[in-house]
């Protein structure tokens, strides 16, 4: 990933309201170029092809997600694309699988916008 350009970002979330809120926060961050929202796995696959994002923010429990299929699909077909799991669900039982698939980060939806931006700043510095 070229660190001198804005990070092209795709948000995948079954809840349009949450996706729009995430989009609003991301659009306030200078280093992000928000590309699109996908509401399910089928849309996610299509929008990855269309936009070639550097980062996919993925609600693990989005419709159509079977086990870790979409994560495997992204990692296999787009190895440079980073994946951040952004979910309000308990993923304790899935944690080892997410680590094994080399998910880049996991973030709870329970955080507010300020915490999200703080996380982003740390994430961006580490991955620059």
UniProtKB/TrEMBL annotation:
<dbReference type="InterPro" id="IPR001789">
    <property type="entry name" value="Sig_transdc_resp-reg_receiver"/>
</dbReference>
<keyword id="KW-0597">Phosphoprotein</keyword>
<dbReference type="InterPro" id="IPR011006">
    <property type="entry name" value="CheY-like_superfamily"/>
</dbReference>
<protein>
    <submittedName>
        <fullName>Response regulator</fullName>
    </submittedName>
</protein>
<dbReference type="Pfam" id="PF00072">
    <property type="entry name" value="Response_reg"/>
</dbReference>
<feature type="modified residue" description="4-aspartylphosphate">
    <location>
        <position position="59"/>
    </location>
</feature>
<feature type="domain" description="Response regulatory">
    <location>
        <begin position="8"/>
        <end position="124"/>
    </location>
</feature>
């Amino acid at each position: 990933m070229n660190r001198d350009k804005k990070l092209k970002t795709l948000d995948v979330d079954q809840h349009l309201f949450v996706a729009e809120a995430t989009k609003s926060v991301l659009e306030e961050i200078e280093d992000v170029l928000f590309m699109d929202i996908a509401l399910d796995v089928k849309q996610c696959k299509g929008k990855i092809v269309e936009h070639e994002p550097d980062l996919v923010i993925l609600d693990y429990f989005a419709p159509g997600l079977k086990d870790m299929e979409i994560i495997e699909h992204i990692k296999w077909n787009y190895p440079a694309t980073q994946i951040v799991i952004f979910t309000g669900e308990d993923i304790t039982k899935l944690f080892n699988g997410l680590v094994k698939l080399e998910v880049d980060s996991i973030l709870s939806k329970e955080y507010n916008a300020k915490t999200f931006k703080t996380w982003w700043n740390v994430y961006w510095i580490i991955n620059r």
